[in-house]
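Trying the structure run again after the queue cleared.
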Amino acid sequence: MRHFNAGTQYRAPYVNIEAGQAAREDVVMAMRGITSNLLQAAKLHLKNTSADAVYQSLVERNNWGNALQPMIAHLPSHDDAHPTSPPVDFDDRPD
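Done. Tokens:
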């Protein structure tokens, strides 16, 4: 994450998705935890406060089965400092 954020081309948040593992077979609980963590990472690492609206939309529509797609798709398109950042890549290491 630090490597990508040190440059000017990419922005990378670190998102802990262990909340999904803790929920076991409860998909709704897992997706709520993961997307909540993604929202917090967007705010902290990307300074992206517009992700709140995407998250609120998920809450209102109760669309947790497909929750990651709208959250991930939103992030690069709403990063004013890096508007051409590529989509998210998953890695299990924070640095």
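Residues 2-77 form one domain. Worth checking whether this holds up in the mutant runs.
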